[in-house]
Design goal:
Length: 233
Amino acid sequence: MPLFRLSKRLDFPPAWLSRSDGLLCIGGDLSSKRLLLAYENGIFPWFSKGEPILWWSPDPRLVLFPKDINISKSLNKKIRQNRFTVTMDNAFEQTIVSCARPRKNNDAGTWLVDEMIASYIELHNMGYVHSIETWRDDKLVGGLYGVCLGGSFFGESMFSSESDASKIALVALANYLENQGFDLIDCQVTTNHLLNMGATEISRNSFLDIINKSVKRRDIKDIWDPNISLKIF
């Protein structure tokens, strides 16, 4: 498949035209309108400092259906020790900045360059991007953030400064979204960590079929209340 170059016009080529590695197009901008259009069409940005903006739509796609969240015995034991609390949208900027810090194994997280952070903060202020935060003794020790459109949550990144803190955030998110009738949590690309948490691979076509209907469910968009403490079990 060819690699498309975006112009200033607000559009994307069809996601199914992505290359075998999932890369669809290059260029464009990170405006709020373009980002929302990307997610609505199963596309997301992912690039490193010094690179042009790269847009992806991998096949297969890793997703987590909220009801399928898997809690290991060791994680369940840690949760039931009741040492953590989980909130939403209480520390968005702190969460996304923490997600951007390089990790010990030098994997995902370093791609969150300054312009990406600024764009997601803008979308957060518009009510489209949300964070889930894990706290211990009033200290932020883990969390995640993502884009919410209709009945879909498009997960972007997570972090932990304490073992299992991001897993606890994901468990709380999945439980909450299941109760709210959400269709899926998009995990984008496959990792063993997320597979162990209950995520599964589906074809790009199946993913696009689901979100095409799901993102139109605007009636369940306004569920994010910073005053709510999320239940972990």
